[in-house]
Amino acid sequence: MSERGTVPQVTRGESLLFLTDDQLRRGIEAMFFAYRGFTADPDRILAEKGLGRAHHRATHFINRLPGTTVNRLLEVLGVTKQSLNRVLRTLIDEGLVEARVGVRDRRERHLYLTDAGAALERELSDAQRARMRAAYRAAGPDAVAGFRLVLEEMMDPEHKRQYRQGQDRAQ
Amino acid sequence: MSERGTVPQVTRGESLLFLTDDQLRRGIEAMFFAYRGFTADPDRILAEKGLGRAHHRATHFINRLPGTTVNRLLEVLGVTKQSLNRVLRTLIDEGLVEARVGVRDRRERHLYLTDAGAALERELSDAQRARMRAAYRAAGPDAVAGFRLVLEEMMDPEHKRQYRQGQDRAQ
DNA sequence: TTGGAAAGTCAACAAGGCTGACATAAAATA
DNA sequence: TATTTTATGTCAGCCTTGTTGACTTTCCAA
Questions:
Q1: Which of chain B's residues have a Cβ under 8 Å away from the Cβ of A134?
Q2: Do A138 and B153 make contact, defined as CB atoms within 8 angstroms?
């Protein structure tokens, strides 16, 4: 907070002009507008099917973590179990997700996408990846590396852990 | 869509490995987790005051565009006037925003933050900038340039325009 | 075997999106 | 001047997706 309105000093020959309040504000607005673009395409598809963004998030991570328990999914998504339950209810009722009672622990429900669920997930992620791919291609590999690094540094520590655990799957 | 599950070919000596579906998925998850971090600190402050993220977005852009009309703000925020109206109503009733009747065109309302509104805006953006600054510092200037470039490429064209117009203010 | 913890469900509420219809005032135009 | 268009605000009602609280079922450890 101490740097507001000031121009950071040049130290050891490095310019710190990328840390001015104005540059930070630009970054904040970039996040705001980019996130809108990021969700726009899946949102359109979901709206047609009477589903919402929450269903997309759930199917994404069920696809990524097949057989996950509800609890595990709760940690990743960061919502209350009641909130997730409503979304799962819909997905199960519509035949997109299957909840299998745990074998070792019968309190647990292990979640899997059905064929229809996998098809939906693919449709949504295809749309999202298409935009991402276009942006990556336009920006180039070095920019992408920077993009990923800054995003990682913005995460809460526990999300950073989860994010890193998601590495090297389906290579 | 055509590249799913394939490894992009190396063309003209460039590696296109940063465009694999898996790399794109990583970017998607990075956006998801980072956006959570991005909004977490202001959300906590807002919750204490009985306000929501929508109030933050409104005060942010009223601060950035002092004297903006309601219509202009609607375009930037991308919500309906009914939705914005509810938010503005609260902000005006709580003495955080002032709506002045237009001089040239008396149908217009020009929006300004009051002193209390400016103080709230500063508290919120200080919190958000603090996280941003830490991420920027940790990632370094080159990463930040890449971050901003990729985000810009992810925006819808009209948001990209608005984003670019926001350059070079309060230098 | 029993009491607590864990997983999941049901009910109710709130924020903040949305649409539609309508009112008012002012500006622009025929 | 009469009419239409524009900018704004408001009411009503709906939906999604968060929340908390209370409850059931199941498991496990004392």
A1: 153
A2: yes
Closest chain B CA to residue A124:
B1
pLDDT tens digits, one per residue of A108-147: 999 999 999 999 999 999 999 999 999 999 999 999 999 9
In this predicted model, what pLDDT tens digit does every residue of B143-157 receive, in sequence order?
A: 999 999 999 999 999
The encoded tokens of residue B114 equal 């009051």
Q: Which residue is nearest to nucleotide C26 (CA to C1')?
A: B107
Q: Across the beta sheet with A68-69, what order do the strands follow?
A: A68-69, A109-113, A97-101
Q: Where residue B79 falls among pLDDT bands split at 50, 70, 90?
A: very high
Residues A34, B150: Cα–Cα separation, whole Å: 9
Q: Which of B69, B63, B68, B58 is nearest to B91 (CA)?
A: B58
Nucleotide nearest A79, from its CA to each C1': D18
Residues 6+ apart with CB under 8 A from B134: A153
Backbone torsion region of residue B105, taken as left when φ is above 0, otherwise alpha when ψ lies between -120 and 50, otherwise beta:
beta
Ranges of beta strands (E only) in chain A are 68-69, 97-101, 109-113
| CA-derived radius of gyration, chain A | 20
Q: What percent of chain B has pLDDT over 90?
A: 81
Task: Write down the pTM of the prediction.
Answer: 0.90
Which residues in chain A land under pLDDT 50? 1-3, 169-171
**Alpha carbons A38 and B31: distance in angstroms, whole number:** 8
The C-alpha atoms of residue A89 and residue A86 are separated, in whole angstroms, by: 5
